[in-house]
Write a structure and sequence with these properties.
alpha/beta, Rossmann fold, nine-stranded mixed beta sheet, two-stranded antiparallel sheet, 13 helices, 35% helix, AB_hydrolase_1, AB_hydrolase_fold, MAG_DAG_Lipase
């Protein structure tokens, strides 16, 4: 039985490879494993990468020495991350996780790469219902800081797609299989602008054009989704936030003088990995067995936080906090009540202060941060059911 707390206010005003026809620009092929190319670094990146690339990765149990060697590559650039992901796909799909074992059959998947307006290669993936199933709408995903739109989200997307939705996802620049320095956010606004740009193209695809379109943001992706909504308030039919990062607790927020120093340093050595980061896996996954599987997400960023990235995350949450009353979209907020990574009280703050006439907050008792990946199986299904039921009610 799901013991979630449910707060509602509703206004009365209310992976096979498939080739789908497309009018989009030619797609760039995703390379398979091949020898590492030499990297030509320019400017300050040369010094920073040389100093930062030496993190020793723990050996992954249950895979060959060859795969461990592949996983230990420097993942600063997208081409290397694509090779590593290609090497691990089969291993990931065989993990004893409900998202992989119980993934609905018949869902069609496709992936491709396109250049954005900044010239960066952006990785796309989509999942469609099996043929003959009427498509109800589009769900566009924004992943979190230590995540990608592949691995665990692969299973999540298949469940949502099997319920009649086209599910679309991109890796943010600098994350996953997209181009850019790994874990580096030069501008959070540019991150949001890239989401707006890429998903504007998705909304014009013939299979979903004219249908309801929803944003789904998880953790840092929740902050991205909120920024996207604030920049384009009429662009979406609803926003689903899972453990969103939308306000930093005061007891961990740097003082104003410290923030000024960090900001100054971020202009001098922006890509430097100077901000310590704890091993958050034990705080993110309540199910110990699932926590052990997180290591197989080999292209996720798990090193120290880059200096400018840290400053941009702090700035973004501050800006969202100051504009929270402008959040007007139909809103579903889902959060583990025992989350120690992003505070569920912040979701309560968002729920109480958003101007949305249609808003729902669900707090899942004892739930940790990864309520869609790291909880007991029945809880994962419960959260998925809550998302799908909310979407269905608005299509």
């Amino acid at each position: 039985m799901d013991l979630s707390l449910d707060f509602r206010y509703r206004s009365s005003f209310l992976p096979p490879k498939l080739n789908f026809p497309s009018t989009h620009p030619p797609k760039l092929s995703i390379p398979i494993i091949s020898p590492l190319p030499s990297l030509h670094l320019q400017g300050t990146h040369r010094l920073t990468i040389a100093a930062a690339a030496g993190k020793k990765k723990n050996k992954i149990e249950g895979v060959s020495e060859e795969l461990n060697l592949i996983a230990s590559q420097n993942l600063d650039y997208g081409a290397a991350r694509r090779r590593v992901r290609s090497a691990f796909i089969e291993v990931q799909q065989q993990l004893d996780h409900i998202l992989f074992k119980m993934a609905p059959p018949g869902v069609r998947a496709e992936e491709w790469i396109e250049r954005n307006s900044k010239g960066l290669e952006i990785f796309f993936r989509r999942w469609m219902p099996e043929p003959g199933v009427k498509i109800k709408g589009a769900v566009c995903f924004c992943h979190g800081y230590g995540d990608t739109c592949t691995f665990f989200f692969e299973g999540i997307a298949r469940f949502i797609a099997a319920s009649g939705y086209g599910v679309y996802a991109i890796d943010h620049p600098g994350f996953g299989l997209s181009e850019g320095l790994h874990g580096y956010i030069y501008s959070f606004d540019e991150l949001a602008d890239n989401v707006i740009e890429q998903y504007a193209k998705i909304k014009e695809r013939p299979e979903v054009k004219g249908l309801p379109c929803f944003l789904l943001g998880q953790s840092m992706g929740g902050a991205v989704a909120l920024k996207v909504h604030l920049k384009d308030p009429q662009g979406w039919d609803g926003v689903v936030l899972v453990a969103p990062m939308c306000k930093i607790a005061e007891d961990v927020t740097p003082s104003e003088p410290v923030l000024k120093v960090l900001t100054l340093l971020s202009n001098v050595v922006p890509t430097a990995k100077l901000v310590p980061q704890k091993d958050l896996a034990k705080l993110m996954f309540r199910d110990p067995r699932k926590k052990k599987m997180a290591v197989y997400n080999v292209i996720s960023y798990d090193d120290r936080v880059r200096l400018r990235t840290a400053v941009e995350l702090l700035k973004a949450t501050k800006e969202i906090e100051m504009q929270v009353e402008k959040v007007s979209s139909p809103l579903l907020i889902l959060h583990g009540a025992a989350d120690k990574v992003t505070d569920p009280l912040v979701s309560q703050f968002l729920y109480e202060n958003a101007s949305s006439k249609d808003k729902t907050l669900k707090l899942y008792e004892e739930g940790y941060h990864c309520i869609l990946e790291g909880e007991p199986d029945d809880r994962i299904f419960s959260v998925l059911d809550d998302i799908i039921a909310w979407l269905d009610a608005r299509c």
